[in-house]
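## tool: complex_structure
## caller: assistant
## args:
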Amino acid sequence: MTRHVENDTTAAPPQPAPPAGRMCADDRRRQIAEVAMRLFSERGFRGTTTKEIAQAAGVSEAIIFRHFATKEELYTAIIDYKGCGGEAASPVAGRPEQPPFIDELRGLVADAMEAADDLAVFRTVAQHMLEHHEEDTEFLRLLMYIALEKHSLGQVFWDKNVRVLYEFLGGYVRRRQREGAFRDVDPYAAVRVFLGSVIHHSLVNLLWDRDPARRIFRVTNEEAARQFADVLLRGIAAKDAVGAGATKRPARNREGGADVKNNRDKNKKR
Amino acid sequence: MTRHVENDTTAAPPQPAPPAGRMCADDRRRQIAEVAMRLFSERGFRGTTTKEIAQAAGVSEAIIFRHFATKEELYTAIIDYKGCGGEAASPVAGRPEQPPFIDELRGLVADAMEAADDLAVFRTVAQHMLEHHEEDTEFLRLLMYIALEKHSLGQVFWDKNVRVLYEFLGGYVRRRQREGAFRDVDPYAAVRVFLGSVIHHSLVNLLWDRDPARRIFRVTNEEAARQFADVLLRGIAAKDAVGAGATKRPARNREGGADVKNNRDKNKKR
DNA sequence: AACATGTAAGTAAGTACTTACTTTTAGAGC
DNA sequence: GCTCTAAAAGTAAGTACTTACTTACATGTT
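## result:
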């Protein structure tokens, strides 16, 4: 297997074709998928031509069709790889699919949940999501195209990721209601308010209020996460539990806080 | 009129062409714009062909280009007409542009704002927005395409509609903070939580959780509006003002309530 | 007759995808 | 080391079809 130094292919749309040498099939397949992902996320499925993809990848059009039978298959492989995995249709060969985002989250907030540190739970989730969106803006854009174009894997993504996140957080809210910490609101209403804030925030910053200098609500991810969690928790807190923090262990919120920190560091690495 | 059997190409979506007779230019222009809007919102700018538009409008392709110089001009005219108005470029001839959504809202909540009936203010805004989104799903979809495709009028829409809505609600929050009714949070954080809930709710129902039977958070617009407003208001209420309703006039919420009612009736008509 | 509304049949430049062919490279046998 | 070779990686130049947009001409109403 000839492992090849990947030439830096991240620039303006049509790109002057880098001096790509020969690659082994797996590398080339992955490179095409990455380049295509960038273009698809920028201009949508229909707006991206196979010729453009070939140019951007520095190869001829024919080799795209050597690696992917159709443009649609290339598209689907990318989506599939990025967490809509339908198990079948191995995406970027060999690669065992990304670690599911939801599992990362579960791990991050497990301690805080056990400790019933509500603020840490929601802050951590919010911040982790915001950072994930910022790290992978391409995929966020792609997701919107997928939804608009009604690609069949859109439904899979929803069910495998967002729906389970709703159930995960909704379950926590329900538990805390049983424990008397939260008042009696529809748990999914609470989750919608929370995820609505977070996702809307990312989407606005990505799609509408793009210029950071002109932004109407200009905050760091950390600050935004704190505010969203704070408003939500006060909004659903039981009357007797006034503070926004945990009712049971107001001082010991180190676990949740540490998780947020870890997450921050992890952010730097990419 | 020689009706011709069009060779079967595109199949289902483009519609079997209605028996449109002769029209005066203005009517035709408007009809084309409406049909095109439907198709653009469904498949995006690049995904919609002028041939499809012509078929769906029941005319030949050439007359589209008699009324609109280019496909892009047709697209822009539609967007412009739907509230991104840049004054110039008369959209659908003669027609004086839709009444700005934000002004409708201002009128609807004016009384409730004066009465400082917070719940009525936010409930009315939420419900009116949710209903507007439901009535005009085509435009919501189109907006997402506009944002993704980075159409220049997207910025105009943001500034003329969403931005002013943020400022409008943010201003109200600030005022209520001064009055001691709301605690000291960033007003735009509060608005983001609120509009995030509302817009995310519409977007989810439109794009992701489309099947009403499977929906994860299944409520009427009225109920959703109530819940979002409720969580937000408790979330930002000052400590001493415990209840979610107005601090000053807890009983007299008739004004805001009446507005919500009127709005509801309007919903039924579609 | 005049003029606006309409059309059938183009055109040139794409579009996804193929074909027929050349180059590179791993690795066996010497 | 060296050649030889089979398979894989690559390409140039197509194919059949679609695209936005045009042209030359027809029809209906005043």
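## assistant note: Chain A touches chain B through 51 residues (CB under 8 Å). The mean pLDDT of chain A is 82. Handing back to user.
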